[in-house]
UniProtKB/TrEMBL annotation:
This is Putative gamma-glutamylcyclotransferase. Coiled coil: none annotated. One of its GO terms (molecular function) is transferase activity. It comes from the Bacteria. Residues 6-110 form the Gamma-glutamylcyclotransferase AIG2-like domain. Pfam families: GGACT. Keywords: Transferase.
Length: 140
């Protein structure tokens, strides 16, 4: 197992988002996790990973540094917890999955809709978050 492998299935699968948050796009390969679904979250442009029938698809990011992990952990919504998943190709990856009992929509999240309707504003939001985060880190 690569302890630095992160399975991403939502906004973090977009290179522009990763670059905005950590200044680079880590090595990544297509990956999938059986028994999970990428659910839309109420009033949020990003999804949540929840147990379900079918297979969630995304990418496995490798080679994240400890500092990049800290940034991504700080960035992720409190609705998530980090969980180790078995991937369909025999690899393992950590993923931000919804906490048990989180409210999700009955329909799946669409990467295509996110890209068409939300990506530019989301990148701006990520950049603003990063500026606040870095200011807070410097003040600590």
């Amino acid at each position: 197992m690569d302890p630095e492998a992160l399975f991403v299935y939502g906004s973090l699968q977009f290179p522009e988002v990763l670059f905005t948050l950590i200044d680079r796009v880590p090595d990544h390969d297509p990956a999938a996790a059986h028994g999970w679904r990428v659910a839309a979250l109420p009033e949020r442009p990003y999804p949540g990973l929840v147990p379900g029938t079918g297979t969630a698809t995304g990418y496995l990011l490798t080679g994240l540094t400890p500092e990049e992990w800290r940034v991504l952990d700080a960035f992720e919504d409190p609705v998530y917890e980090l969980k180790r998943l078995d991937l369909t190709d025999g690899r393992h990856g950590w993923a931000y999955v919804c906490n048990p009992g989180a409210t999700v929509e009955p329909h799946d999240w669409s990467a295509e809709d996110f890209q068409a309707q939300h990506l530019p504003a989301y990148i701006d939001r990520c950049a603003a978050w990063r500026r606040r985060h870095e200011t807070n880190q410097q003040a600590s």
